[in-house]
Every structure is written in structure tokens, then in C-alpha cells.
Amino acid sequence: MRNIYTPNYLIIRDGIYYFVRRIPIDIKHHYTVHRICTSLRTRSYSVAKRGAALLTTQLDDYWLSLRMGNYASNLYPSRSLDIEKPAGITLYDALDLYLRLKSKNKGDAFIRYAKRSIDYVIDTLGNRDLVSYNALDGGKFRDALMKRQLASSSVKRIFSSVRSIVNLAIREHGLDMKNPFANVYFPELNDSVSRKPIVNQDIRLLQNKCIEFDDDLRHLLALISDTGMRLAEAVGLHIDDLVLSSSCPHICLKPNPVRRLKTQQSQRIIPLIGASFWAAKRIKDGNNVGYAFDRYTKTGICNSNSASAALNKWLKEQVSDEVVIHSFRHSMRDRLRAVQCPKDIVDAIGGWGKSSIGEQYGNGYPVSVLYEWMDKIALR
User: Is the dihedral of CA 52, 58, 64, 70 positive or negative?
Assistant: First the structure.
């Protein structure tokens, strides 16, 4: 956008006033740029005019001190900004910084989501200097996302990602600005769709179908059905994670090179019962080395999306359109509640977050205790 020049060393850019003044030739050697340019962070001409007058006076005094040989003053150091890029930090710059500092060991999904969130902003507002965005832009971005008919929960997640990216850039570069994507109001639309758990009758039906088909996809589904694991957790299992020789067969779930875990609590011991124990034995029988589901990990990346598409399609054919693979995780919590399993054991089995400081002490429950409670929910 073309700059609009006004008197008193002012220009308007994207509706924001900037103070711009050329550095005199006789003191130019104190600077690395030819002009001083700084945002006045206002759209009001009268406010900008007063600010420019104050800056003009202070600069005149400072430059006089330089001419007089007084180098002690540090009112305006030589890191002033270029006129074409007032802040020098664009939204894409903020994204690059965020990924450089935050993406280590986070996986490709983390990077894709951050990039997609910033692309949403740029599609709506453009890739501008961070200091040029304001609270009005935050509202425009919210409205643009809602016009895409995204669920309000998705809009909030996108905003959360964008806020984090901008906040990091503000802190790291010491920008004197508020995050324009913070404190944006979101109307309560009650449009979220909750996943329903699968009833025990349908779980048993699906487990019998898995035994009938007896292929790797059905092994994966059976493994999840009696463990409540997240799909990516199961898809990324290594053969060595399946411990079947123990008196209490179990999965030792931990991160590995192809798949990280969602949270710290996700690293856990999960007893193997019923159909999940059957599936683990079938997996071990067919493969003694490498990953449990090599067709989804052979590229060195856990491709759980492909497994999700195939399994969800099959589930709808067998049960109903309302059932998805994640429904087993909801059912696991209900099944443990039904046998009055203590909440902290439920959380330990499912890898849900600990609710108190005390629960974070010690090494947790032994596998024999976890197995005792899991055995109570086996569908016989």
C-alpha cells in the first residue's frame, strides 16, 4: 500500500501514523540507516501530531548533543527501522521464528497446523508488519473464519495457534505492542459435535468381525477396542512395546522416532485383555522386528491419517455413521466407570492428565493393579 505523507514528519500506512525523519548528513555516521521510522500506534491525527512534535524536540536535543561531542545520551540508538519495513517483523517472520524454536520433536502435524493457521490470517489480512495489526484485525479474522463455516471450537484452536506465534515474536524481538489476536470475543454457538461412545454390544460385534477378517487393519482396531489408545499411539507402536511374556501382558507405550506422544502423561503401561490381547499376539506372530503396523510407518513417519480413513469407513459400514475410531476411547472411560474404577487409575490407563500435584509423585501403579481393573471390563 502506498504511503500517505502528512506534515510534521508523519506518514500514514494502513491507517497507522508513523514518525519519519531523515538523519542529518553531519551525524549520519552514528547510524546504520538513512531515516528514523517508528510507529506512533494511533489512527488519530491529533494524537500523532503531538507525538511527532515531542519526538522532534527530543531528536533535536539528542542530535545537538552528538554535534557537541556528548555521546552519553542514548535516547535514540542507531537501530532505527527502515522506512519500507517499519517494524521489520512480518507474520511469516514470526512463523519462522516459532517453528525454529518450538517445532523440535513436535512432528510434522505441529508444523502443518502452525503454517495453516498463519495462512488463514494472511489470506484475510495479508502478510504485514506485526505492529500494523490491531484489535480490529482480530475481529475481522474471527469473522472470516466463521464465514468458512468452521466450528467455533476450530476457530478457537486456530486463534490459539496464531496468538502463540505472535506472542513469541513480541517477546523475542521486544516489540512494544499488544497481541491483536488476544482478547477477541467468540460468540457461543453450541455447534460442537461430541463423539459418542460405542455400546458394549457393538464393541463385541466389531471384535468378532476383527477375528473373522484377521488382517492388519482389524488387528489395529481390535488392539484399540480394549485399550482405549489414541489411533496414532497404536499405529506407531514398535514390536518391542508389546510385552506378552509377562504374567500381566501389557503395552509399554512410549515415544519413538516415527511417533511422538500427545502429552507427558501419554507415556504409560496399558494392560492387554480380551480382543486387544488377541490382536497383540497376532501382530507378534506376523512380525518379530520393527514396527507393529509397518505399512503406516515404512516412510519413517507415522501415517495415522490413512489408517483413520480406512477404519472409519469400515466402522460406518458395520455399525453406524456416528461411530468413529476415537469413540473407543470414550467407551473405555465409561467401561472403567461402570466397574467403579478409581479416577486416578482410569487416568493412568488412558493417559489422561493428572488433576493434582500429589498424583504426579512416585512411579505410579504397578502393572498388576492396572491389570486387575482392566480384567473387570473384559467383554466375555
Answer: negative
